[in-house]
Amino acid sequence: MEAVRTVFCYDSDAPLRLIRQRLLIDEALGDVPDDVPAVPLVQDVFAQQKRLRMAVRADATELDLDLRQPAHLEKSVLLHRLSLLGIRWGTVQHMCGRSGTFHELWCLLWQPEFAVDLIEASIWGSTLEGAAKTIAFDRATKAQALPELTALMEQILLADQAIRLLQADDHLAAWFAALATGAVSEMSHPLLAGRCVRILTEHGHWQTERAA
Q1: For the residues of 16-79, what is the DSSP string, one character each?
Q2: CB within 8 A of 45, min separation 6: which ones?
Q3: What is d(CA 82, CA 85) in angstroms, rounded to the nearest whole number?
Q4: What is the largest CA-CA distance in the chain?
Q5: CA-to-CA distance for 166 and 142, rounded, in angstroms?
Q6: Dihedral over alpha carbons 71, 76, 79, 82 (to 10 degrees)
Q7: Torsion of CA 110, 81, 130, 37, to 10 degrees
Q8: SS3 183
């Protein structure tokens, strides 16, 4: 092996690492036949990935979303809801030279263990929307400081869960509205803060004197 490395690889390990990665490991992911039983949450997520044409890949890919387009907004919501469950299929990248108000640039990288994480996350609900709503409530009850709560509220808004939480039973809706009102002034993203105020106002939970 030393002779091969010296003669063919110019005494460098880099070509051998590339050969090992491409021939022995590869970047292809296996799949499970559609008729194999799966928990409802996994079925829901996979169905959304298929409907939105979001291929599951083991290599990093970029996804540039214009949130003014309904299909792109759905993809963003899917990624943010998975993030709420702790499944970080995508990471939002910082963009230069372009207003980020209506754009999100994602780096997608699917890890094989996400399939197991989805099964574990099924304790929160049988659909992605329901699971994201339940875990958002759970995390909000455990938030200890305003910065933590504010970050969570931004996640909830990006995951399109605020209206669902306000449509819960009266006690929980009032409790969530109080938390959201307190977090608005600390939100770093003006668009999210404005969306939060609009949603609270439409559902009769926004009080100008309290927010001031």
Answers
A1: HHHHIIIIII-SPPP---TTS---HHHHHHHHHHHHTT----SS-EEEEEETTSHHHHHHHHHH
A2: 78, 82, 118, 128
A3: 5
A4: 79
A5: 19
A6: -100
A7: -10
A8: helix
Q: Which two tokens stand for residue 102?
A: 């209506």
Phi, psi (5° rounding) for residue 87?
-105, 95
pLDDT in tens, the chain (212 residues): 667 666 666 666 776 666 666 665 555 555 555 555 679 999 999 999 999 999 998 889 999 998 889 999 899 999 999 999 999 999 988 655 555 567 889 999 999 899 899 999 999 999 999 999 889 888 877 877 767 777 777 787 778 765 565 555 555 566 566 666 666 665 656 556 666 666 666 555 544 433 44
CB 13 within 8 A of CB 20: no
* Nearest Cα to Cα of residue 80 among 140, 139, 161: 161
- Check if the beta carbon of residue 108 is closer than 8 Å to that of residue 57: yes
d(CA 149, CA 131): 19
Q: What residues contact residue 194 under an 8 Å CB cut-off, 6+ apart? A: none
Q: Are 181 and 165 in contact (CB under 8 A)?
A: no
3-class SS string, 112-168: CCHHHHHHHHHHHCCCHHHHHHHHHHHHHHHCCCHHHHHHHHHHHHHCCCHHHHHCC
Indicate the residue type of 52: L
Alpha-carbon gap, residue 78 to 145, rounded angstroms: 27
